[in-house]
Structures are given as C-alpha cells and as structure tokens.
Amino acid sequence: MRQLIIIGSGPAALTAAIYAARANLAPLVIASSVEAGGELMNTTEVENFPGFPEAVQGPELMTKIQEQAEKFGAEVVYDDVVSVDFGGPVKSVKLGSGTTHDAAAVIFATGSAYRKIGIEGEERLSGRGVSWCATCDGFFFRERTIAVVGGGDSAMEEATFLTRFASKVYVIHRRDELRASKIMQERAFANEKIEFVWNSAVVDILGTDAVTGVVLEDTVTGERRELPLEGLFVAIGNDPRTHLVHDVLDLTPEGTIWVDGRSSRTSVPGVFAAGDVIDPTYRQAVTAAASGTVAALDAEHFLAVLNEAGLPTPDDDQIAGLPDADPVAASRH
Ligand SMILES: Cc1cc2nc3c(=O)[nH]c(=O)nc-3n(C[C@H](O)[C@H](O)[C@H](O)COP(=O)(O)OP(=O)(O)OC[C@H]3O[C@@H](n4cnc5c(N)ncnc54)[C@H](O)[C@@H]3O)c2cc1C
C-alpha cells in the first residue's frame, strides 16, 4: 500500500508531487491517459508564471514541473482514475486499465474544464486567437478587435477587463438580455469599447493559423453573417471535474470540492483537494501550484500523525479509533 496517491497532473498535482516526494512519501501520480499535464498543455506562451521573464510554452512548463517531481521520487502513471473508494481508512482508486491502488491519503487535483462552444475551429485555434482566460491571454490582444461569447457575470468581467488591451470588444450573446448581475451589466454597457451583438450564436471560427473572424447565426431569423475578429474569448462557464466524487465528498454551491478554510482538507479525512477543482474564482497555474503545496503539506502532516499510530492496512480501521477521525484536525486543536 502507498502512503499517498495524487490524482491529476496539472500544476496542482505535480507541485503537490514535488513536495510529497521531497518529504519521502514516494507519491504515485495518476496523470490521465490522454490529457496528462493539464490545461496548460493546450496553450502556447505562458507569460505570468514566475521565473520565466521570456515566457515559457505551456507544455514545456508542465514537462519541467513533472521532471522536478520525478527527480525526487514521484512515480507517474499514464492512466485515468475511473472510480474511488474513500469509505474507510484505506483509500482505493481504480484505474481504466483495471489496476487498483491503495493509499493512506489521496490528493484530488483533477482541475476544471471550460465549457466549449463545440464547433470546428475552437480546438484547432486554441492558443491562436481562441481563449478561455482573459487574465491569461488578454495581454496578447493589444489594439486588436476581439469578441467575448457569453452573457453571464464572467463574460461581462472578461469583456470589461479585455478593454484594457483591445481596441474593440464585441460581446456575442444568444439572447436579447443578459444573465449577468445588474452591476456587471451596467459596467459593461457604460464601456465605450464594448459593443453587444444580441441574438447571435457563433457557428464557425475562421482562420488557418490564427483567428480572422467568426460566422454568426441570428438565433431569431437564422440569417448568417461574418464578423472579422482577431481574438475570441469563450466565457460560457466552467465545470470542476468532480464526477468521481459527487457522492463521496462535500461540494460547494459553485460545484467545487469543499475544503476546510485555507486548508486542503475535504469532508473525508485523508482526502485532500487542490487546484482549480476547489477554486471557483482564481483558476491560474500559480494559484493551482500553491494550492498543491498546501495539499502536500496537509497530507504530509496527516500521514505523520497516522504513522505515529501505525499506517492503516486494507484489513484494519485504525483511523476510526483516533480522535475526531481526522488526525490532522485533531493534532491542531
Ligand atoms: C487555454 C488555456 C490557457 C491558459 N493560460 C494560462 C496562463 O497563461 N497562465 C496561467 O496562470 N493559467 C493559465 N490557464 C489556467 C491554468 O491552466 C489552470 O488554472 C491550471 O492548469 C489549473 O491547474 P490544475 O492542476 O488545478 O488543473 P489542470 O491543469 O486542469 O489539470 C488537471 C489534471 O487532472 C487530470 N484528470 C482529470 N480527471 C482525471 C482522472 N479521472 N484520472 C486521472 N487524471 C485526471 C486532467 O487530465 C489534468 O491533467 C490557462 C487555461 C487554459 C484552458
């Protein structure tokens, strides 16, 4: 049985792996079979991760973070967790290959997925004009004409933020009214650089190597027209990847995994969560990495207390005998 299993391979999981490996916990990282490296694998230049004044390519950054974790003893497996059993002191995760791994503690860092429009060109031009993150990519669109798709608070926030860089920001929305809160709407309406395109759906994204425009379909008349653009920000929502633990861990009203205050402790002792899967607000590589650090330190502390009592095996339930059933929480009181 392992001491620690880490699920995920984005900045949160791999930073947790660096800390856990350096603490001699020999963590097993379940990285995913096809999406190893997380969201930064889908982007080109990352200009806001500390330590890279000349910027770094997303995949290169993730490769380096993984190398750092492996150098200290983390073991990375390219497979998907298909189910978990966190019911007892021994945590089990089952992989797509059929293998099951057991550990005394688990860090859950499966990230979140930006909702996609689901049209051709969206994936192909990702990082080449199509983006889901104004904070990450707004800087690349100085004096450009761009559009934001969406009608909620985050779309208004992204559009307003993007006017710091772009010369013109269209907000493309399927309906003739917004879902966004009144204050966010008013701020967007008052901004001279923002123009609303109502009753319109993006049905195609134009461009070979970079976005040159979109095809809009009028949701009332069905008429189609082209809108020339140099960038398209998709702001139609974000779903934390929690399907494995919906019935296992407590979630917040936003759908992220609930954690106790500033810690990474979930509602189940011995299960910690980190990164975008617990974060409805910031969702940046560096905040995910920091969150991974917190999770590794929490897990380390949990395991230290547990090791003093003797690690659980699949046949016993020693944790149940400990005060508060959570040795970390108990030791902090
Ligand atoms: C296009 C794009 C550009 C971005 N640019 C920037 C930027 O410039 N700067 C910045 O700071 N942030 C940027 N971000 C945001 C940043 O990528 C995320 O905030 C960060 O990656 C979150 O890290 P994470 O580790 O929580 O999750 P993720 O990076 O999403 O990683 C989660 C990992 O968990 C794995 N996983 C999920 N389910 C399972 C399972 N069942 N079994 C095994 N593995 C599983 C996934 O495959 C993935 O590898 C960008 C995001 C996108 C989409």
UniProtKB/TrEMBL annotation:
Residues 313-333 are annotated as: Disordered. Binds 1 FAD per subunit. The keyword Iron does not apply. PROSITE patterns: PYRIDINE_REDOX_2. Residues 3-292 form the FAD/NAD(P)-binding domain. SUPFAM superfamilies: FAD/NAD(P)-binding domain. One of its GO terms (molecular function) is thioredoxin-disulfide reductase (NADPH) activity. It comes from the Bacteria. It catalyses: [thioredoxin]-dithiol + NADP(+) = [thioredoxin]-disulfide + NADPH + H(+). Its EC number is 1.8.1.9. Keywords: Disulfide bond, FAD, Flavoprotein, NADP, Oxidoreductase, Redox-active center. Coiled coil: none annotated. It is an enzyme of class 1 (oxidoreductase). Its cofactor is FAD. Homodimer. NCBIfam families: TRX_reduct (TIGR01292). Belongs to the class-II pyridine nucleotide-disulfide oxidoreductase family. This is Thioredoxin reductase. The gene is trxB.
